[in-house]
Specification:
Helix content: 25-40%
CATH topology of the largest domain: FAD/NAD(P)-binding domain
Structural class: alpha/beta
CATH architecture of the largest domain: 3-Layer(bba) Sandwich
CATH class of the largest domain: Alpha Beta
Oligomer: single chain
Number of domains: 2
Shape: elongated
Distance between the termini: 25 Å
Strand content: 25-35%
């Protein structure tokens, strides 16, 4: 069992090869901010009747889609590829100037050390550190019953930090900045994908316009029709367009999943002192997390029923903050007085072979004093694509899987997808393979699916165990049962949870 888990863990957290960023030039934008680029594109389409040909078309310019482009730009074998990014978000075509005095955005991500390493190697993390962000070195998890708590400290695993919380706009801007500072040939199309045809002969429909085209881009292409009436061709289409992926729908890829009948309220709050710990308390209706954002700000992620979330969103600021402080302090039950199960608390099953800070005393989270952003409500669900790859097409990020925000793993799984795919594309180019060939893309699917399913099963098991069993002593038993029930219908992995020997690091 340990061998299975360690192999899976290596796929999620240990995908790393030495590389350096290649940064010199800005991203080319087609159809909006660059008049010259638009005129050139219009000239090609009107007079030469030639649609642009790319090696890769990334549909979706969010954090995961842009991360893929960033990783491709940083690898010697892929930095000469021509990449199109299709997304109607105007933020992609303009520079984002983030001022320190700007109010924090409630949409944040908690980035794990593994993801930070990917972004550092790609040259993007230095841009994150220029803006507001917060490393945290401590974590405390406890139950509303008061029966126990678990505390973690980065020093226990010989690390400087357990993770970093940053606004999504900061992460997105950092990835874009890294690409703009490179000589990577990227064209942004501020349009929507309307239709897609895979396996179209490029020889009969597309005229190549450059002699620098790599061998991997010859042969057949996919045709993508855009909302502005134009068409482009690509050797590989990457669906990075989120949980409601249009690429996935057009490709006819089905999903397995369910809704949780829960919503998450997210917002930014302020307290009197700076917060350096990630806090999470399990309540009867779902967990509430308080995540540090720096500058005395923290982010709230509070899971509850749809009815309760709508009610709390409409409360006055004073009433809402009173509820937050109650949920993080004495509400629903007393403070724990000892760590769970002595020296082997319930969360130790999900640690690696390190010791845990069981001798540290329970701490009360800082009191929230002000609401610093609007309150946003999102429905929660689990979705998993039955297939990640077919010829000329591959899915990454939320287009392939969406998970419960319980442990903040969503964007990290997406970054893992993006890095894995970029590495496998590089390997294919090195071997002279067609980057859209299904056998190559299935290597990515095999590598990422096992890792993603494992994490999804664990998180879904935790969520269902808590919502059904309502007790810290039953949570792992329930997690094991429901996690196994999730994996079985997918018919992809058979993992025994009975032994209790599997250990996964779960960071917020």
């Amino acid at each position: 069992m340990n061998r299975v888990v360690k192999k899976t863990l290596s796929n999620v957290f240990a995908l790393k090869i030495p590389r350096k960023p290649f940064c010199t030039e800005a991203v080319k934008v087609a159809g909006s901010t660059s008049v010259e680029a638009f005129n050139e594109l219009e000239k090609n389409q009107t007079f030469s009747k030639v649609s642009p040909q790319y090696d890769i078309a990334i549909v979706g310019g969010g954090m995961v889609g842009i991360a893929l482009a960033c990783f491709l730009a940083s690898m010697p074998m892929t930095k000469l590829l021509r990449v199109a990014i299709i997304d109607s978000n105007p933020a992609l075509g303009s520079s984002l100037h983030i001022k320190k005095e700007d109010p924090p955005d409630p949409r944040v991500s908690t980035v794990t050390p593994a993801s930070i390493s990917f972004l550092q190697d790609a040259g993007a993390w230095k841009y994150v550190e220029k803006n507001r962000h917060a490393y945290f070195s401590k974590m405390q998890v406890w139950d509303y019953t008061g029966l126990g708590y678990a505390r973690y400290n980065a020093r226990d695993v010989d690390k400087d930090f357990l993770g970093c919380v940053a606004e999504n706009k900061v992460l997105h801007n950092a990835l874009l900045s890294s690409i703009k500072d490179s000589d990577f040939k990227t064209t942004i199309y501020p349009s929507r994908l309307t239709a897609m045809s895979l396996n179209t002969s490029s020889k009969s429909m597309v005229e190549n316009t450059t002699s620098e085209e790599p061998l991997s881009a010859r042969g057949h292409s996919a045709e993508l029709q855009l909302s502005d009436g134009s068409s482009i061709y690509a050797k590989l289409v990457v669906g990075a367009d989120g949980g409601k992926s249009h690429v996935r729908d057009l490709a006819g890829i089905k999903t397995t999943g369910w809704n949780y009948s829960q919503n998450a309220i997210i917002c930014t709050v302020e307290h009197t002192s700076e917060n350096g710990c990630a806090w999470q308390r399990f309540l009867p209706t779902g967990p509430i997390a308080l995540l540090p954002m720096g500058d005395k700000f923290s982010n709230i992620v509070w899971t509850m029923s749809p009815t309760e979330s709508n009610n709390r969103k409409s409360l006055t600021e004073e009433e809402f903050l009173k509820g937050v402080n109650s949920a993080l302090n004495y509400g629903h039950g007393p403070h724990p007085t000892s760590s769970l199960l002595g020296t082997r608390d319930m969360f130790s099953w999900f640690k690696l072979d390190e010791t845990i800070s069981t001798n540290e005393f329970f701490e009360i989270p800082p009191k929230v004093t002000r609401l610093a952003s609007e309150r946003m409500v999102f429905p929660l669900s689990l979705r998993h694509a039955n297939s990640y790859a077919s010829k000329r097409l591959v899915l990454i990020g939320d287009a392939a899987h969406t998970v419960h925000p319980l442990a903040g793993q969503g964007v990290n799984l997406g970054f893992g997808d993006a890095f894995s795919l970029s590495r496998i594309i590089a390997e294919g180019i090195a071997l002279g393979s067609d980057i859209g060939e299904v056998n190559l893309l299935k290597k990515y699917e095999a590598e990422r699916k096992s890792a993603n399913i494992m994490m999804m099963a664990i998180l879904d098991g935790f969520q269902k165990a808590y919502s059904i069993d309502f007790g810290p002593l039953n949570i792992l038993r329930g997690a094991a049962f429901h996690g196994a029930n999730y994996i079985s219908p997918l018919k992809k992995s058979i993992i025994s949870y009975a032994s209790g020997e599997h250990k996964l690091p779960i960071f917020f």
